[in-house]
Design goal:
about 575 residues, mainly beta, glycoprotein, six-stranded mixed beta sheet, Immunoglobulin-like, binds 2-acetamido-2-deoxy-beta-D-glucopyranose, binds copper (II) ion
Length: about 575
Amino acid sequence: MNLTYFHSFQSLKVLLFGFCVITLFPELVVSITRHYTFNIEYLNVTRLCHTRNILSVNGKFPGPRLVAREGDRVLVKVVNHISNNVTIHWHGIRQKTTGWSDGPAYVTQCPIQTNQTYTYNFTITGQRGTLFWHAHISWLRATLYGPIIILPKKNESYPFEKPYREIPILFGEWFNVDPEAVINQALQTGGGPNVSDAYTINGLPGPFYNCSSKDTFKLKVKPNKTYLLRIINAALNEELFFSIANHTLTVVEADARYIKPFNTDIIVITPGQTTNVILKTKPYFPNSTFLMIARPYVTGLGTFDNSTPAGILQYKQQHKSPTKNLPFLKPTLPFINDTNFVSNFTRKFKSLANSKFPINVPKKVDKKLFFTVGLGTSPCPENTTCQGPTNNTKFAASVNNYSFVLPSVSIMESYYNFGNSNNGVYKTDFPDNPLNPFNYTGTPPNNTMVNNDTKLVVLKFNTSVELILQDTSILGAESHPLHLHGYDFFVVGQGFGNYDSNKDPSNFNLFDPVERNTVGVPAGGWVAIRFFADNPGVWFMHCHLDIHTSWGLRMAWIVLDGPESNQKLQPPPSDLPKC
Ligand SMILES: *[C@@H]1O[C@H](CO)[C@@H](O)[C@H](O)[C@H]1NC(C)=O
Ligand SMILES: *[C@@H]1O[C@H](CO)[C@@H](O)[C@H](O)[C@H]1NC(C)=O
Ligand SMILES: *[C@@H]1O[C@H](CO)[C@@H](O)[C@H](O)[C@H]1NC(C)=O
Ligand SMILES: *[C@@H]1O[C@H](CO)[C@@H](O)[C@H](O)[C@H]1NC(C)=O
Ligand SMILES: *[C@@H]1O[C@H](CO)[C@@H](O)[C@H](O)[C@H]1NC(C)=O
Ligand SMILES: *[C@@H]1O[C@H](CO)[C@@H](O)[C@H](O)[C@H]1NC(C)=O
Ligand SMILES: *[C@@H]1O[C@H](CO)[C@@H](O)[C@H](O)[C@H]1NC(C)=O
Ligand SMILES: *[C@@H]1O[C@H](CO)[C@@H](O)[C@H](O)[C@H]1NC(C)=O
Ligand SMILES: *[C@@H]1O[C@H](CO)[C@@H](O)[C@H](O)[C@H]1NC(C)=O
Ligand SMILES: *[C@@H]1O[C@H](CO)[C@@H](O)[C@H](O)[C@H]1NC(C)=O
Ligand SMILES: *[C@@H]1O[C@H](CO)[C@@H](O)[C@H](O)[C@H]1NC(C)=O
Ligand SMILES: *[C@@H]1O[C@H](CO)[C@@H](O)[C@H](O)[C@H]1NC(C)=O
Ligand SMILES: [Cu+2]
């Protein structure tokens, strides 16, 4: 049975009809189709006393919530009313056989140009929790982002106490200038980009910035209740610590997968990661107001936004007693470079992995790959001066020393139309291992120049893959949040220094590893992930620090069709944008 549920500009009749049927025959409702319209339009927003004409969806900043249940089909009609090219990525959605709806520009689609429309069409299968949507072209995601809330199926409950309320918490970065000007200038000069002027919590920087105290996110709660915070790091370039004064959080979900719950006072979250935490409020009305604060976790050598975003956890008065001027309590956060804290924290994530939510970790590996990830340099064009890390160079970044060049047409369309034969758009010989091995976390090689190319890895359908992601110390060891499109992967191991293929696999967790779509490669270390290549199509993989993606820390995979009809990449939709 398929019902239709319109979220934007909906007909009230359809909406009521949908609710009635759901109420009367809940067992009949297998899935419904949810219709959204995303108008990409300009919006004037003022923060820190600077007004900017930002890009928005439906005039909202942050953007509107996309709400669906596991099993639902989602149709989002995106209409481009701005002068920039746009695409939207449904970050973390598996998109099984529907890569045309994944969104990265020039990988799975050409951009939606001014006055054009494209309808993204996908089902949500086997996932529940929090994800987010964001623009996936240049740095437009700076303001084009919003939550994806995936509720359990109608007849299913959470594997934890039912929350009284659910609240999205989105971290972002605010620039007083146009972020497109920032990245364009950085790419031209070869230097590091100008940093953001503020971090935001649900679009609001909070009281620790000039001209900002009115722009403070307030989480109003009642005593003795359970709140589910759906936390999303949509910041462009920084991992973040986050804590609420005098409150312990219980982490229950990561990247739309349930985990074994654990308690913590502080979380750390990379760009591209999402996590659900339970906040249990104090049993009685406390005589205090509690600050919630974030701070960047920084490992690289470049400059960064070192400002402090804050929101307020405010207990609502039960009785009208005087509560003005309650003392503010502030949480304590780790040092900005506390890699030990981050390492300890990330090791606490384990899949729930019970009989109701079993996991399928590849035990046997068909294909082993080893990718270095890190920074590098490229030459300055003749007769120009560059502001890169060394004289006459530009900053670059790479995977196995290849800095990925985006073509000017869609890779997946080229693949679909021309098959795997070389059509000149891409090559299929991305190296399984570094071509020039070195001591990755020791003294960097003298030559730090990267290769520029468009090379992909080709995988047969259902290959079981093990991928080691190894950070390098070129231009400074740095944590890189790697995001794989179209897949969740199991994080089976991690460590510092160079990965040792003789010693390290014996410590892999093949029992209850966390399953996610974005993992922080430890600064000066490595992470081991495994997955089954069960989703045919072309899938982008990249660092979710946008400056590193822009510098080329990105590559892509082709996963070939399987034999069954539901194991093949679907034909492209008729409204797929053209280049
Ligand atoms: C934004 O502000 C400018 C200058 O005040 C104005 O011209 C423009 O119409 C506004 N745009 C929108 C979308 O409100
Ligand atoms: C988009 O549509 C508007 C209104 O119809 C028109 O004025 C404008 O020229 C169009 N722009 C492009 C690039 O097609
Ligand atoms: C969405 O995709 C499904 C499955 O391919 C297809 O049956 C349906 O017609 C599509 N809907 C729209 C509006 O394109
Ligand atoms: C908050 O925590 C501090 C430090 O642990 C403690 O001294 C204080 O009593 C707590 N206040 C409340 C209202 O919980
Ligand atoms: C808090 O809630 C629990 C369960 O909802 C209830 O049993 C308990 O009495 C409440 N405590 C207070 C102080 O209201
Ligand atoms: C972290 O920063 C502190 C303070 O700036 C500094 O003293 C310390 O050496 C740094 N630690 C690491 C591991 O870089
Ligand atoms: C990390 O965990 C180790 C071992 O449990 C502990 O000794 C250390 O204090 C922890 N470090 C931080 C920063 O939490
Ligand atoms: C660079 O400058 C030299 C000397 O002025 C000139 O001969 C050469 O053509 C220039 N090269 C480019 C690419 O502009
Ligand atoms: C870079 O170039 C400048 C000016 O030519 C020179 O003074 C400086 O020593 C050079 N630095 C390095 C590291 O080569
Ligand atoms: C790699 O470099 C590290 C750090 O300098 C050093 O401790 C280690 O011995 C080196 N490993 C090899 C195999 O040379
Ligand atoms: C790098 O350069 C140094 C100094 O010029 C030299 O001693 C060293 O052998 C070089 N290392 C490599 C790996 O080429
Ligand atoms: C938009 O994308 C098209 C197709 O790739 C390209 O030809 C055009 O130059 C782009 N326009 C802008 C404003 O970037
Ligand atoms: Cu990175």
